[in-house]
Amino acid sequence: MEVSETIQCPYCSQSFELVVDTSVPAQRYTTDCEVCCRPFEVQVECEPGEILSLAVQGE
Ligand SMILES: [Zn+2]
């Protein structure tokens, strides 16, 4: 089950949507900003269908 959440790039502060697969309860992965293309880490905790917490961290 996928849920979209708005996240903010830690470098350029641009907000954009991230789609999270909420069937995985704890996730950590690296994604690239759609605007400045710099990679940052996203940590997500979720229940099926709902995001409990989401944090972004630059390197
Ligand atoms: Zn950016």
Give the end-to-end Cα distance, rounded to a whole number of Å. 29 Å
- The secondary structure category is mainly beta
Backbone shape: elongated
Q: Please mark out the parts with pLDDT under 50 across 5 or more consecutive residues, or reply none.
A: none
Q: What does this protein structure show overall?
A:
The protein is mainly beta and 59 residues long. It has one domain (2-57). It is built from no helices and 5 strands. The strands form 2 sheets. A 3-stranded antiparallel beta sheet has the order 3-4-5, with no helix packed on it. A hairpin with a 6-residue loop joins strand 3 and strand 4. It starts with a strand and ends with a strand.
In short:
This protein has 59 residues and is mainly β.
What's the arrangement of secondary structure elements?
Elements: E1 2-8, E2 15-21, E3 26-32, E4 39-47, E5 50-57
Antiparallel strand pairs: 1-2, 3-4, 4-5
Bound molecules: zinc ion.
Residues 9, 11-12, 14, 33, 35-36, 38 line the site of zinc ion.
List keywords for this structure.
elongated, 3-stranded antiparallel sheet, binds zinc ion, mainly beta, 59 residues, 0% helix
